[in-house]
Amino acid sequence: MVRMVPEYADAMRSMRAIWIDAGTRDEYYLDLGAEAFRRSLLDTGVSPDVIRFELFDAGHGAIDYRYPLSPAWPAGQISG
User: Fold this and answer.
1) What is the Cα Rg of the chain in Å?
2) Cα separation of 5 and 18, whole Å?
3) Among 1, 44, 65, 75, which residue's beta carbon has the most beta carbons within 10 A?
4) Is the dihedral of CA 50, 6, 1, 38 positive or negative?
5) Which residues contact 24 (CB under 8 A, 6 or more apart)?
6) How confident is the model at residue 1 (pLDDT cuts 50, 70, 90)?
7) What pLDDT is recorded for position 80?
């Protein structure tokens, strides 16, 4: 995904809400990928106002308590 951002820069800049999150103890190091993705978006000119970026204290599994958060913020951005 990170390497695809420049190719799809126009589409990324047209987004009204982008949710990115990962656990700081992710066993697959998706937290590093999430940070790289955010940086790539910003470098491509995506407004920081449309990006919600969160690193939370957890691993890769048993994070179902976070599932309700991921549609809530984007829905508010899109409808508001």
Assistant:
1) 13
2) 13
3) 44
4) negative
5) 31, 55, 56, 57, 58
6) confident
7) 72
What pLDDT score was predicted for residue 45? 98
Q: Round to whole Å and give the CA distance between 32 and 29.
A: 6
Structural contact between residues 34 and 22, judged by C-beta atoms closer than 8 angstroms: yes
2 and 36 Cβ atoms separated by less than 8 Å = yes
Counting Cα atoms < 13 Å in the Cβ hemisphere of 28 gives 6
Structure tokens that stand for 18 in this block: 């982008």
Handedness of CA 60, 61, 66, 71 (dihedral sign): positive
The CA-based angle 70-76-78, given to 5 degrees, is 100
Residue with tokens 């589409």: 11
